[in-house]
Design goal:
elongated, eight-stranded antiparallel β-barrel
Length: 442
């Protein structure tokens, strides 16, 4: 059960039609009370610190509250009522009878295994539903994830709009360890900021520590802007997703729907297709036709760091599609050994450690044999078989098109009928390599 402390002398005993009988918590936006509504059931009543005197700001916040009410209630604490016009503006939401994720980790320790997976899926589901309703949470953190007896709930989403409307210019809204870098730089908080904080929340759930720590608020902000996060014990797909979601530029991160798709598409026992890329039919998948400059091995300044919009697919890189298209000549080499075993479309994600990049790649076992790769799959080239002894196929990548895209050699090692590992070596540069895993998608 959540901790309920007695009301303090300065606390109200009633707000509107709601009788208050205890404190549930306090944060930067206001104090949360347990209340009783007309039906006699418990509710959570948040008394906001800020007062909205500007009529246009009040209307904007009222519209956001209406949007919040449209969020799917199965993964969030549903907003039931709100009063923004009085001296004491408040919001009433569903009461969740359970501790916060922060409280649970503090008392019971970090989440592991299936418990951690359930937190990842539950929070990503809630965030995707919130964003689909057109709402940005703006303060996503372990304290705003409640573990109810009937499942996980995310609370306080959308409320920071009021704080945004009344805050002093230049002051970021949110909890120090759970603020995206763009918010610290004074840019607006968009859905990508929530995704950044989702990753921080997952790190906390897995380790019991904040990914960015410091002795002062300024030190924490500096580490968010310039430091390296402590990812604790995270491994595999969860670590890959967190790394992608912690990209410095908002455009470089996957959206919540793509994160959720990656989590749900994972097969038991090993990372599934979503670990390498989203299913082609996923409606949240990004447009992969836009040009991009973030090709593997690019030696000019990274356009993503410079704020280029082309960076989106690079983050999506972790959860976006990666297919390998191989032509008839390649198919002949493969099927000559085991007909039908390796044909189809293969998808995965390439990691290029020396360049610090993660991006999609594509190979399909059909004519014409082609490979596409790069943040927006803007690089393309022809594949021809070089050799294929045993379970390893070596292909030559040439006739390459695209800015800062390079020919080379592709080595594919098969791991059964639906999984493979690959490595690409750029022509004439033995140390310039990127690699990853593939999954057959059809």
């Amino acid at each position: 059960m959540p901790d309920v402390s007695p009301l303090r002398p300065e606390d109200p005993h009633r707000l509107g039609n709601y009788r208050l009988d205890g404190r549930l918590g306090v944060g930067g936006q206001g104090v949360v009370f347990r209340g009783v509504g007309a039906s006699g059931g418990p509710v959570a009543v948040k008394l906001l610190h800020a007062r909205v005197d500007d009529a246009s700001a009040r209307r904007a916040f009222a519209r956001e509250i209406e949007a919040v009410r449209r969020v799917a209630p199965f993964c969030t604490a549903q907003v039931l009522d709100a009063d923004l016009d009085g001296d004491r503006p408040y919001i009433v939401s569903e009461y969740v009878d359970g501790p916060s994720l922060r409280e649970h980790v503090t008392t019971a320790g970090p989440r592991t295994g299936g418990d951690l997976d359930r937190v990842a899926v539950g929070t990503a589901t809630a965030l995707a539903a919130i964003h689909r309703a057109g709402v940005v949470h703006r303060d996503f953190k372990p304290g705003n994830v409640l573990l109810g007896s009937d499942g996980l709930r995310v609370v306080d989403f959308g409320i920071s709009r009021l704080a945004d409307a009344t805050a002093t210019t230049g002051n970021p809204v949110g909890t120090p360890a759970y603020i995206a870098p763009e918010q610290l730089e004074g840019r607006p908080a968009e859905p990508a900021a929530d995704v950044f904080c989702w990753a921080l929340t997952l790190v906390y759930a897995a380790s019991g520590r904040h990914a960015y720590t410091g002795d002062t608020y300024a030190a924490v902000m500096a580490r968010i802007l310039y430091g390296t996060p402590d990812l604790g014990p995270l491994t595999g797909l969860l670590k890959d997703l967190v790394v992608a979601c912690l990209a410095a530029e908002p455009a470089d991160r996957p959206d919540a729907g793509q994160v959720l798709s990656a989590l749900l598409d994972r097969s038991p026992g090993r990372p599934g297709p979503a670990a390498q890329g989203l299913p082609a039919q996923d409606p949240t998948a990004p447009d992969l036709t836009a040009p991009d400059l973030t090709a593997p091995g690019l030696t000019t300044p990274d356009p993503i760091v410079s704020g280029s919009t082309a960076g989106r697919a690079r983050v999506v890189a972790l959860v976006a599609s990666l297919a390998v298209l191989v032509a008839v000549g390649v198919a002949w080499v493969l099927t000559a050994r085991e007909p039908g075993r390796l044909d189809g479309t293969w998808t995965g994600v390439a990691r290029y450690p020396s360049a610090g990049r993660v991006f999609p790649v594509e190979i399909r076992l059909a004519a014409p044999a082609r490979m596409r790769w790069g943040a927006d799959l803007h690089c393309s080239g022809r594949l021809t078989p070089a050799s294929g002894p045993g379970d390893v196929l070596v292909l030559t990548l040439d006739q390459v098109k695209g800015d800062a895209c390079h020919p080379g050699s592709v080595s594919i090692t098969w791991r059964g009928e639906s999984a493979a590992d690959f490595e690409v070596t750029r022509a004439g540069e033995q140390d310039a390599r990127y690699s990853g895993s593939l999954t057959r998608t059809n």
